[in-house]
Design brief:
Blueprint lengths: L4 E8 L2 H4 L7 E6 L4 E7 L3 H9 L4 E6 L23
Antiparallel strand pairs: 1-3, 1-4, 2-3
């Protein structure tokens, strides 16, 4: 079974040094223009890992991703209006 994963957005000042974040988890995306890294790590060890990452000299800010808390199951309570406008 797959472990519970947590996503983090890490704002960095140096992207070359940010490549070393791969040893803390899975780096999903690195933005060269906006200088942030999206990475995932195991949820059970995330608190201590975030504390270690926060001490790195090139890390400016760390934000938790709320993607896994967003509702992804939708219900169709309203009628489909696209059929009324079709030719």
């Amino acid at each position: 079974m797959l472990p519970e994963r947590t996503g983090y957005i890490i704002w960095v000042s140096d992207l070359k040094a940010a490549r070393s974040l791969e040893k803390y988890g899975t780096v999903h995306y690195m933005s060269r223009r906006m200088h942030y890294v999206v990475m995932y790590m195991n949820a059970d060890r995330s608190e201590e890992t975030v504390r270690l990452i926060g001490k790195l000299p090139y890390v400016r800010k760390i934000e938790r991703s709320y993607r896994n808390e967003i509702k992804t199951e939708y219900s169709k309570d309203t009628e489909d209006k696209t059929r009324a406008y079709s030719i």
